[in-house]
Design brief:
Shape: globular
Number of strands: 23
């Protein structure tokens, strides 16, 4: 008697799924799960260009606490501040100029037992404690309000005309103190006019109270402010930020020690902010000439966001409704073919961790992280040289520069990075290479600086350390 075998469902990729997988002309931002760990992955031209894994313990970077000074270590010019029961953080005494002592009258000293306002700047990593600063700052896509100097600064990516228009905008709102060299006004009634009290839920806040004093506060005007043509909308973004900033400083006077006054954005919002910021910068950088090896400008990439996680999808829709990203959001459902399998995330992740990275020309990079720094070596590899070797070296180096900028972000490399490009004899070629590399790292959301080229031809780069490198993230989560 023959046994009837049930037919297995087909796992062949449908036309719709095949179209979904195409990334040559459309980039994808995936919010998915990889080996049980939630993550955000950016894919363009069928390549993984950015990866962020969300830790099981949420990051506290950006959160504001009322902490207690547990000890002052003058020998290392620092102190240790407890922000939650049992959690000590490192605070450099260089960053206590705007100290907000809450349990006693400030007298310029920092003593054990002082209750102070601090903001987390770095999570705890390995044996190192988390770091905090007493210079509180709040930001949105357009502005940053920060303690310290009262100066008004503009993004270096804004051109002269944009800076002039924004300067006039701030003058019209009476936000500039002309007598003090166009510094930001320190009057609460101008930073947050009466008409905005009801909108910001601040009508019960009395900024004239003797318990409240506004510390010196400065303003940074970000790149996206120059792209917003509607003055009314721009002023709304400023007043919303000012309301949050003033309210935080006000209520700090009435909260108990270890209170968290502001929690950091959720991982998904942080990933979206990083993605949108880099995407906007990338469009600007790619319009420049001679960035690529073949000197052909990239076509503008259309992006869409895809997720197979219901919680992610709901948060994405809420964020889109509130901020109008203008990027399509798709919820992927297929029980036979996961989103990670559809985009071959496994192989892309393996490639992202290999020490050797191949270039289209046949050249390759060798990336070797060490305890002190990261070394990147550029080689011609399989590239077939023409009659002029200098042309070969120049083309491989320009392509390598673009790949180096991408790998810094993808692998989340930080600290000191040394790049050994192929030696070129012409000083003009070296200068052009540095110019191209500096232009490429501008699109990095994390502060990245190309220092210079040493007499030995080694290019020095520094990149601020915010979170763990990609390899350590995967090891931490036992992937």
């Amino acid at each position: 008697m023959s046994r009837k075998i049930a037919q297995k469902p087909s796992v062949t990729i449908t036309k719709e799924e095949a179209a979904l997988r195409q990334t040559a002309s459309q980039g994808k931002l995936l919010f998915t799960s990889y080996h049980g760990q939630r993550c955000a992955l950016s894919i363009r031209d069928d390549r993984l260009i950015d990866a962020s894994f969300f830790p099981k313990i949420p990051s506290k970077i950006g959160s504001v606490y009322i902490g207690k000074v547990k000890s002052v270590a003058k020998n290392i010019n620092a102190c240790f501040v407890e922000i939650e029961k049992g959690e000590l953080c490192f605070l450099s005494l260089k960053e206590t100029g705007m100290l907000q002592t809450l349990n006693r009258t400030p007298d310029g000293r920092l003593l054990e037992g002082d209750e102070i306002l601090v903001q987390v700047t770095r999570d705890a990593q390995k044996s190192k404690r988390a770091s905090v600063t007493a210079q509180i700052s709040l930001s949105n896509d357009y502005f940053v309000l920060a303690m310290g100097s009262e100066r008004v600064c503009y993004s270096t990516k804004l051109d002269k005309k944009q800076k002039g228009n924004l300067h006039k905008f701030l003058q019209d709102l009476e936000l500039l103190n002309i007598e003090r060299g166009n510094c930001l006004t320190q009057e609460c009634r101008l930073l947050l006019p009466d008409a905005w009290y009801t909108q910001s839920d601040s009508e019960h806040l009395d900024f004239s109270s003797p318990k409240f004093s506004l510390p010196p506060t400065g303003l940074i005007v970000r790149t996206r402010a120059g792209e917003l043509e509607c003055a009314e909308e721009l002023s709304e973004h400023f007043y919303q930020l000012a309301a949050a900033y003033l309210r935080l400083l006000y209520i700090a006077r009435y909260r108990s020690c270890f209170s968290c006054l502001k929690r950091t954005d959720t991982e998904i919002l942080a990933a979206l902010e990083q993605f949108t910021g880099e995407h906007a910068a990338a469009q600007e950088i790619r319009s420049e000439e001679n960035v690529c090896m073949d000197e052909t400008p990239h076509s503008e990439t259309a992006w869409e966001i895809i997720t197979d996680q219901e919680t992610f999808y709901e948060q994405l829709l809420q964020h889109e409704k509130k901020n109008s990203l203008g990027i399509p959001i798709r919820f992927y459902q297929d029980s036979m073919l996961t989103l990670s399998a559809l985009y071959a995330v496994e192989s892309k992740m393996k490639t992202a961790l290999e020490s050797r990275v191949w270039l289209k020309s046949g050249g390759y990079l060798v990336i070797e992280p060490t305890e002190a720094l990261t070394v990147i070596d550029v080689n011609t590899g399989k590239y077939e040289a023409g009659k002029n070797p200098e042309d070969t070296y120049r083309k491989v180096n320009l392509e390598a520069a673009e790949e180096v900028a991408l790998q810094l972000r993808l692998r989340n490399l930080s600290g000191i990075i040394i790049v050994d490009f192929i030696n070129m004899r012409t000083p003009g070629d070296n200068a052009h290479l540095l110019h191209v590399l500096k232009s490429l790292v501008k699109q990095d959301k994390i502060q990245t600086t190309v220092i210079d080229m040493t007499p030995l031809g080694l290019v020095e780069i520094t990149r601020k350390k915010i979170s763990k490198p990609l390899r350590e993230q995967l090891q931490t989560y036992s992937i």
